[in-house]
Amino acid sequence: MASDSTPPADAVNTAIGSVSVLSEDSRRRMFVFIRRAGRAVTRDEAAASVGISRKLAAFHLDKLVDAGLLRARYETPGGIRKVGRRPKVYEPSDAQITVSIPERRHELLADLLLDAVLTEGADENAAQAAVRAAERRGRRMGEAARDETRPGRLGPERGLTVCERLLDEYGYEPVRAAPTELRLRNCPFHPLTAKAPDLVCGMNHAFLAGYVNGLEVNGVRAVLAPEPGECCVRLGPGDTERDDGGGPLARR
Hints:
Strands 1-3-2 form a 3-stranded antiparallel beta sheet. Strands 4-5 form a two-stranded antiparallel ribbon. The protein has helices spanning 8-21, 25-37, 43-50, 54-66, 106-119, 126-149, 156-169, 192-195, 197-215, and strands at 41-42, 70-74, 88-92, 174-178, 181-184, 220-224, 233-237. It has 9 helices and 7 strands; from the N terminus they run H-H-E-H-H-E-E-H-H-H-E-E-H-H-E-E. The chain is an alpha+beta fold. The longest helix has 24 residues, at 126-149. Helix 2 (25-37) packs across helix 3, helix 2 (25-37) crosses helix 4 (54-66) and helix 3 (43-50) crosses helix 4 (54-66).
């Protein structure tokens, strides 16, 4: 995926664009050559690596830079300053490309499990720690979204509209089944969910419940409602009772 500062939905579009750029054979081969070089590469070297002209190589290299796959700068090879203009050199960027349709969020699941391992308490088992870590992450994200947007009091309909943004960005494919109900058409953690449904679905439920709590959406709760081919959680009508964390109480 993209960096933490890039919204997930934008990251998918960026990744698709990057893959499209690499569809051209010479461009892709130059990209591989530069990644494996272990140093900055000149246009002449890149052109020679695939047997094309320097001018054509410059065109393809600039496309790779525009796509965020390469970085370009001016440098004298070997650090020795020579007379004349310094050559332009290219090196790999830090971009990582992952494209999945429908979208998957395995890195989020892995991050939550790592969080659980690092913070597991003496009074809980691994599964309990994982669910706790997921709820805490969701709550913090909800609180951050509330601090950023300052939406005021959120009732069910407007609250679900705010929730849709995160759910869409993280690949849940939310659909408004009713004014106060969201169905989630995609499970971002598939196919790992099938390997450990109780654990993964429990974490997913806790994550989404935490987000609703942190965002302080009144009259909405996350509930487990598995449907074939969809996420196991839906957001629907609930009470406005508060838990100790200050958000609406979301129960199974």
